[in-house]
Fold each of these.
Amino acid sequence: MMRDLRSRRQFLRGAGVALALPWMESITRAATTAAASNQPPLRFACIYFSNGVDPAQWWQKGEGAAMEMGSAAAPLMPLREDLIFINGLYNHQAFINPSPHMGRMANMLSGAPVSPDPSVIKVGTTFDQVMARQIGGHTTVPSIALGIEPNELRLEDGLSMLYGSNVSWVSPTKPATKEIYPARTFDQLVGDGKGRAFDRSILDAVLSDTQSLQTKISAGDRHKLDEYLESVRDIEKRIDRASKEERLEGWRPTLKQPNMPRPANEIPQNVPDHMKLMLDLIVLAFQMDKTRIATCMLNNDLSQMNFKFIEGVRGALHLDLTHNGKSPELKAMYLKTNQFHMQQFAYLVNKLKAIDEGGKTLLDSSVLMLASNLYDGDAHGADQMPIVLAGHAGGSLKTGRVMDFRKAGNDNRRACSLYLSLMDMMDVKLDRFGDAEQRLPGLMPSAAA
Amino acid sequence: MQVRPQHLAASIALPAGLLVAALIVGPMHGADEPAPLTPAATMQKYCFQCHSKAAAMGGISLDQLMSRHSVGQDFKQWQKVIAVLDERRMPPKGMPQPADAERSHTVAWVRSEFAAFNKDHAGDPGRVTVRRLTSGEYAYAVRDLTGIDIDTEIDAATDSVGGEGFTNFGDVQFMQDAALERYLASAKKIAEHAVIGAGPLGFYSDPGNTGFEFSAITRIKDIYERNGYRTVSGEGGIPFGLDRVSKAFYVAWRYQHRAAFGEPNAQLEALAAREGINGRFARHTWTVVNAKGLGYPTSEVAARFHKLPAPVKDLKASESKARAASEELQKFVITWPLWLFARGDAAVGGAGDESPLIINDKSLKVNPKNHFAFNRIARRALGPTVEEPLLNPTKVFLNVATVTPGSPGKPVVVWKNATIAYRKGGEPPPPPSAGAGAPAGPNAVANAPKGIAFGPKQSLRSVVTAETAKRLGFGESLDGSTVGPDDFSSELSAVVEVPIPQGVTGFQLQVDAELGSSREHVLRIVITDRENGSSRGIPVRKLIGDPTTAGYKAFKEGVLEFARLLPPNAQGEATPADKDPIPEPFDSTYNVPEHDDFDTRVKYIRDDRFLYENVLDDATRVRLDQAWNDLFASFEYHDNYMDIVAKHYKLDLHGKHIGDMSMADIEALPEEPRKYIVPLKVQHDAVVAAQAAARPKRLDDCLQFAALAWRRPLTESEKRELRSFYDRMLSADPDYKKAIRAVLTRILISPAFLYRVEQTADATGPAVKAVTAYETASRLSFFLWSSIPDEELRRAAAANELATPDQLRRQVKRMLADPKARRLSTEFFGQWLGFYHFDQFRGVDTSRFPEFKDDVRNAMYDEAISFFEYIVRNNRPALEMLTADYTFLSKPLADFYGVKRDIKSLDRAEKIEDANALGRGGLLRLGAVLTVTSAPLRTSPVKRGDWVLRRLLNAGTPPPPADAGSIPADDKMFGGLSLRDKLEAHKRNATCATCHVRIDPLGFPLESYDSTGRVRQHYLDGKAIWDTGTLANKKEIVGVHGLLEYLKSNSEQVQRTLATKLLGYALGRAVQASDQPLIERMATAGPTVTFTDLATDIVLSKQFRNRVGRGDDAVVASNSNKAGGR
């Protein structure tokens, strides 16, 4: 069947007919967007770290090469001309939620309320997943959600730790499956789908089983099986996409085969190695154009990550270092964890900056976001969030700036406004998102004008 | 289904719902006192200011609650309301307080509303959303389905917690492509472990072809071990099953005398079963001992059998006598071949002689004459170079026995050319040119041990004393045969006394032994220095006889008959991989290329004729044939075998496979190799045919597997669909094993396996439906075993025997006693009490506590699981979990705790009694619990107190305010203050106090346990432990004993918590108002109620045995459990 389609397409192309075959839907749409022609596509990544920053050390001022900043962001100093520091943005639903952790974390990228009922997992679809749904079809893998720490199973303050373990949500009730195994991510990116005829036959069969089962069960149960069906179809789509990966777009990725070895099956023992691998995988995915949308959680909320791998630091991120009781010794250690998170982001930015995609760096064609859901970690401060953008979004984003919205009034400092703007850059236009109906003022030249 | 009659709400012009009731059920009061307010007015006056729509502090909005139709809708919130009113925690201090009567009336009114609600609703099944198997259930189900442990890599990442705090709660579960990819990968992995061959579908720990081969070996070995007889077969042979030989004789004897035992009609097979041996083997033995015309030595066995004493009056004594005599007979049967080949010591345990004991043409081959060389070397007892002198004289026994009793004439041996060569102490080894042990000249000694040199040979006659010479009778013939002057002859054995000159430390005796004139005899000769005829070290032994005589032929037939009819010592192969000896025509010597080639490429030979023909029952024969068939099919067995035969005979087969060869091709081969290749070809074709014939059966097996995995019989259309799927896969790829694996994969990622789907709800059916028998079986097995039903549950479901309370009670009792109930301890208690997955706990800073190693952590996990397993499986009172005076320790954990008890087990925990004296015992003192409730570097009385309050008393507190502040994580950084001081300061803050006054006093009593659960005497800074908590009513709780007393005085509440959690876990939903009567019954069942009783209460309950039958959401809504909006 595949062969038939391909020959038919060749026929159509030969005849000069522009026909939107259903399976070509996404490709056709991509072809119509202006940026797609011969330019590299835009990529988006969000790097999340938990437990905020030391407010006393989180400040930036000045522009371009003259920018200055507090010591929390010191590792970003050499990159300052590629960055935009955005201060003062917040999510109202996080701010008003009485649960200092769970209620202020899972909604970071959606601005949605977190369900207070332990029987109902519900927050909101995050904007990375909104984009994945709309433009994820351009690539083999619509998006990747990576992490370092596994999902936790307990209830915290009566709320599921699932909230604290997932920054990316595909629907209000379900997080994007966070992958913490580098090897699995690698396989997902590199697998070509051609060897998956066997899987395909099994999935087809199961699909029909489930459909016949669907007619026999109650509405509530049907909803659960719908999720299952949807998952089966998603895999099938991916197999199909991967097996007929043949681009109509003019642009070609600069990397055809992975330029890193397949990671070991196990999770690396040491946290910095683990993070580096996950960030490398984002770079690989972008460079091979396997996906254009990625999130990575450097840690979970309420992180038990022990930072003893940093010289002079002892204890777990959340309980020991963030809630430091203002002990000077521990505060100093906490500051080092802030800097460590910045270093990870700097690593990613530098790597993208070093990749040439035909006269432009990969960073030029990216927009990266580094953020934590809390500002003052010890006080669970959701009144604002530390946010850093990097990359030039294909030239439309002016970097080397500090934007401060702290005094802009609540309606003008919504994080969801930023997300609307970021989605604009990625060619996903929404009228509203979360609690925002306007773009972030001053971010894009057009909005500034 | 609404509780309050519609007209009541409608008839009053007020907000509908509860408020109406609360208004009209105002309490009665006398005329002279001021009228207390009605519950509605009380709440309005004292509560609404903070708890109405506008404020809704703590998420409680009373006006909203009051506007509902029944209390059932907001069950948990109402529970909180009456708790805070009852305990006078609300309204908060400093706010206007209602009169006592108003307070109690309000509480009473809510309770009466609950009671009214439950008149209609008690036992409602509640809405249970279809549940996906949790990662735990998935692993257990795979284990129970396949019988093997496979790392499925379905981990907790696919789980999510909800309801009463468990992963088996459907509403919060989710599924997405990445998760399904894992299920797919896992299903494929499991299918790879399937053993698909001539035998029934099974699973093996190794995947693919390796697993196929190993599974076959394991099955063969298993049958051999269960049924086989074996003493020794070559190096490393392990004796087993020998007792069956004596049992078989005993059974034959018992059968013979069945009338005397008052059982004239007893069947031989039944008697065999009584003794635990195979009927076929007993029958065979009976036939042999009663056979006519047996040759020697079988005739001797039969004769001895018939001499077993007949029973006398005292039957018991007769039996024991017969048993003892049967054992003697067994000894004869086993030792006779050893004796024949003079295996002596070596034969019993395998030491010394590594060659296998074989009875065949080759080993029974004889010559009338044999040359012997017997060495006697002194032990080097005084050091490596100093040899101990020999005794003078040293006796050498020329041990001769006839193995043909009754042959005509005298059994005479003529000993010819006997010589002696002496060795002096310290004599140097022979020059290298001579070659060690090789004859170097006319006088050199043959067969000298390596590195041992002897002097020149002298005739025996010239060295022995005159007396010895006379006794031996040099030159004399006993039967007329020719005897030279230096020769002598003997009837049977003779003894040579070798004189030992000064300084001699060894000698070699060489002699030719020749059969005398009575040629019908076959003689067994052993030359040894032991009088009993046994040999030391490498034995010097041989049978001599004349192969042309009738006497020899009868002997040989007799021995072969014996080997055929009686269980041989080396019963073929104990394991199919035991390849000694390799068969004809190959060279069986170790380390020669042919032997090694056979070992590595052919690997197995089947040689189990006796077992197969005379022992195994028909069904076992079938299984054995299937297993061998699979083994042959698992690699290129016959091709490899043929190749080695071809090499041996230097044949060129032009690279042909045995499957490609026609019988005509084989007929054209030279005779010798053909002899071996013909049976190979026949066997090969049989293997191929059997594998092909098995195919449709394997597909049938898949359908059975599906019924197990899906926990119910398959519908006809499902069967059809699976079969047609198989056909489709087969048409895409002719490898039928692949198609079978595809079917298995499909079964395992089907929603029928991954989800717990129950019957249809429909719009018109009854509101409540009984769950079906198979659904009941599943509910039971997932509740108590976290897995699929076992065979007994499936049988009971098929027979509809899960219907009456007695039937259910029996099952619960059976299931909780089963080892699988340990999973309840892991899954239920682990999640409830917070030590779930403690083996992966990383919350201890191991740089501060380096002794908290992985094995200690795993032992703590085992301690916790084993503790609850004990309570569950031994029908212990549920409350014993608090008070138990025992715990479960392994040595590493005991050492870690500093417990001075003699515990041997290094891994599995042992039950330790009188544990309280060691500071252990009961759930409060479980290392895992004390550790998970600590911070990485210090204890946390707040976490521990919160744990007691929340987990045991089911009374949570709201989350701390976001800006609560914190206490340094490391108690080394408290700046001189104690943890208590720090917390006290915290409590002075009024917003903090409300909760901490309830939490902290329950945590401090555990301070005498450090953050890794060890008893401690003081803090790190040397200060004394503060382990007293002060309750709001100023009562003090001192230490773990005080806390235990406190919990005992609240034991009903602990039991209520257990009931609530267990019910939520069993049903896979949060508890709701209509569960209250059941929970109350369980909570107040008294202190002796056992865990089994509580589990049984749940299994017998309406909610467990029914489900919502109608799809309409009205039923659901009236009884749901929303925590309400904020």
Amino acid sequence: MSKPPDLVQGTLDLLLLKILALEPLHGWAIAQRLKQMSGDELQVSDGSLYPALHKLELAGWITAEWKTSELGRRAKFYSLTRAGRRYLDQETAHWHRLTTAISRVLALKEI
Amino acid sequence: MRRWMHAIPARLKAIFLRRRIERDLDDELAFHVAMQTRANAREGMTESEAHRRARVEIGGVEQVKERSRDVLPLRWLRDAMQDVRYGLRGLRKSPRFTIAAVLTVVLGVGANATIFSVLNPLLFKPLPYPEPERIVNVFRTSPQSDRWPHSMANYLDHRARNTVFEHLAAIDWQDTSFAEPGQPAERLFTLRTTGNFFALFGVGPLIGRTYTDADDQTGAAEVVVLSYGFWQRRFNGDPTIVGRSMRLNGGNSTVVGVMPRDFEYPLFWGNIDLWRTFAASAQLRQDRGNNFLREFGRLKPGVTPDQAEAAMKAINTQILEENTNLDRSGGVRIEALNIVNPVMRRMSAFAFGLTFLVLLIACVNLANLQLARTAARAREFAIRGAIGGGKGRLLRQSLTDSLVLSVVGGAIAIPLSFWCTRLIATRQFADLTGVRVVLEPATLVFAFGCAMLTGLIFGAVPAWLASRADINDVLKQNPQSMTAGPGPQRFRRGLIVAEIAFALIILAGAVSLVRGLQRITAVDPGWRVDGVLAGRLNLVGPNYIDPASRRTFFQTLRDRVAEIPGVTHAAVSSSSVPTATFGASTTFAVEGRTDPVLAYNERVTAEYFATLQVPLRRGRLLTADDRVGRTPVMVINEAMARALWPAEDPIGKRIGNRGPNPNWREVVGVVGDITFPSFGVSSSVDTEFQTYQALAQTGTQFVNILLRTDRQPDVVAAELRRIVSMLDRDLPVYGLITARAAEERQTANLRLLGNVLAGFAGLGLLLAAIGIFGVVSYSTAQRAGELGMRMALGARQSAVLWLVLKQGVGLTMVGALVGLGGGLALGRLLSSMMPNLPTPEVAILVGAFAGMVLIALAAFSIPAWRASKTNPMLVLRHE
């Protein structure tokens, strides 16, 4: 089971949950949103996206539904579950604490 | 929690809807590629370039799919299912191996579990009483027997003087007549006991109370405790039964309690409807001549049976010193309480040992088959290992193969053994209500586990070794002659030898036991069993208090029964047909001798000998003239006459009671001995002396009517019932049975054991044959290339046949000789365990040896013959 190479472990999950917290989307749209939002800073290959989404689905954080898309074709739309939203809040807070702590350490001046 | 609920559909889908998952995955990725293609095209790429780029950007559709599959749960399960499919395919491809292995599992596991389940309740079920190991029998011994009953006076002395027992109780089986006003009388199976009986066995009542010593006083109000079965059957489990009065033997008794179902133990006690106290009369309490009580003791904690026996012997000596008229040779003996008699128990234990041997053969079979198969697949494993098959994965594959085999075998064996156990339970144990013969799941699991473990060890370990082998070494060898190196080869031959030896040991052991049992059951009983019908009457109640009225009753009865059409002879006697034993024995005094003589004491009417066809050897039989007022007479058997008067004419000698009033009876005739079938296996020495007195001169409370007829027994039985009810409406005739049926019931256990043993012998042989056949045919198939080459080079068919067979002959002989030695040793063990069992005949061992050799050779020659028939061209082309 390979991880997205350029992201801290678990970070991709967090980003995906955040994106889906805004609105239900299908895979391709999620990939586009990811590129837009991170301003191409974060390199996520499209290939890593789907296993990550399926893992979240199996974990129960998101659910999937087949709906007709803008192309008139059936697409798999992912949306956040209530448990997923709680998990997102919890992980966001955790993330803030972690980054603050790390920033604080990095901000120490060398003597 | 809620998260889990959301996850459930996706997970279930992942497990059960794999095709659906795959389709979804395809669709989802196709959609992505389409969207990306459109986006790329909008940036000005050509259609095909846009599509290609979209596929590249996603990182390869197949790769993504594989990574998504990794995310799915239970990857191991999917792998395992693949292994199972592969394993099944492998089994289909080598049917001979499969059939041999599956049959081995079915027979070794299924049959063994069944047989064990049948023996188990007889062997290992503890008695349903607390601390059963402290409960013992106290027997009286004499030079003639070591299992005799006690008199009431002796019992009371034993009880008062001993310090080793917490409780010492006495019992007697006495049937009771239960007559409710206006209803036909019923005969109840009754156990009369001393008041401390329930305290000794340590089980409380289901409802009400049990009785105690306080209820067991002379003149105390009669109380009874009902068995669960009787309470349910007769009173529909009436919860208000306690306090109810029952009319028993013409008197009133009060029900004080009902015992729980588990307290009944028919295997030991027989069927019991109710328990009553003795409430012994003052006269009975003084009686030392009437020996009818069985004593049971519960040892005090910490007292061993040996200590108790020493203490009881001392008390017995005291009693003998105080009562000089008692038999000086009488002793006491203590024996642990067992349900089955010790000899039966030992035989069952022996049969149980055989189950292990059969299981062992089954395991050797599996080991051998697996080794042969793995050796043949060494090349496959080496190649799979070389091209990157993980060692763990290969190991798992061969483990799965073994498991698949076991499961297929188990799927047949388990239902089969359930069915067989049920069959045996209903066919053989229908009479024994308390014995629940059910398949023991633990047994099945154990046998199955053994088989599985063997399969795993001998299948997986060599496979694993093979996967580690240097691929070059393996591939360089001729693939078809690839059996195995000399080491494993020798090991496998060793296994075949062991298998033949084990099978022969089982065969020899089982056959000698079965023959022994046959000789015991086929012993000449000394009377003609066929055509005799027997029934019992219990002459109790106010009408029969006077001995004269009893005598009148049974004379009338006999005369009326003799008039039934088709009845050639009819007699009345104190015991039923002598299939197991006579009902009573007495220690007699013999005129002119100082030592007392213990002998069966049968009281019969004159026609008894004609009815049973017991031959007269000397003097005369009893006649209708031998009645009250005439000289008291006695007929004795040959064994007694020979032992007491070896050189004299026994006619005219006198035998009587011991003590001051001998009441001499004159010996008027000598008849043939009656032999009981259980003599051979009984652990005790019973008396062989049999005496017959005229019923008209003695009398008895329990009357048995015996008749010889050439008509259908049930027609005659109905007539008999009608006659008895005409004579006395309230008198039940019970236990109507043909002598043949009574005899068969007596030997049922022995016959069952014989069948079980014969089954074992067959099973062992069959397993050995299957094993040899499986291994040899499999390894011969592997040698097909070599054999084909030989034939192509000009070897004749017979030469090839001999090539294969030669090895088999050697292995068979070695195995059979080892087995013969084992069989001899087993025979010696058997005769030391059961000295009364007829010694095994040499012919049996030789026969078993020859049979085993033949079967083994047949198992060898079929594959050999097939190998010699192969078309060499076909084989070589295959190469």
